[in-house]
Amino acid sequence: MSELKHHGILGMKWGVRRTPGQLGNLNRKDSKWIVKKSGKITAQAEKKTSRELNKYANELIKAPGAVTKSGKLSAATITAYNKRKAELMSQSVSSLRSPSGKVVQFVAKRGEMGVMMALADEGYNMSQLKNGVWSSGRVAYKKTVLDKA
């Protein structure tokens, strides 16, 4: 059975630190590894993909319907951008493994700009998540919830 475990805690506020034991169902080594390395991994992946992602964003904004009448980005535009960002960032860390051998993946957020870092079993099909993950960790358009890591 394939699993996807997400780095983040439901209701956690920015800047609040929690001990590795509070991170969820991951083993102790993975929990410590996430606490220590997740920020650096995310920053490096964003840096590696920024040029290509900026090109994509410029093309995306020019598409019809990308901006609403009120001048805000449409939900479809945000979803497309997040999916592409998650795809590019996941490719940039494709050789990275956690201490237990899980693969580092990025998952698109839904309803807001950004991605989340997740640990998944080798071969987990990320396209099962269709339109990303809500901030709460609930998968959009799929009746499962990510195990928060």
Low-confidence stretches: 16-24, 141-149
**How far is the N terminus from the C terminus?**
18 Å
Let me know the average pLDDT.
76
Shape: elongated
Biggest pleated-sheet summary: 4 strands, mixed
User: What is the chains' assembly state?
Assistant: single chain
Q: How many domains?
A: 1
Helix share of residues?
Answer: 25-40%
Task: Kindly name the structural category.
Answer: alpha+beta
Strand order, largest beta sheet: 2-3-1-4
- DSSP strand content: 5-15%
Supply the number of helical segments. 2
Query: How large is the radius of gyration?
Result: 16 Å
Q: What is the string of helix and strand elements?
A: EHHEEE
- Please report the total strand number as a whole number: 4
What does this entry look like structurally?
With 149 residues, the protein is an alpha+beta fold. It has one domain (4-9, 23-148). Helix content is 36%, strand content 11%. It has two helices and four strands, in the order E-H-H-E-E-E. It has helices at 28-62, 75-92; strands at residues 4-6, 103-108, 115-120, 147-148. A four-stranded mixed β-sheet has the order 2-3-1-4. A hairpin with a 6-residue loop joins strand 2 and strand 3. The protein is elongated. The two termini are 18 Å apart.
Provide a concise account of the structure shown:
With 149 residues, the chain is α+β, with helices and mostly antiparallel strands. It is built from two helices and four strands; from the N terminus they run E-H-H-E-E-E. Helix 1 crosses helix 2 (75-92).
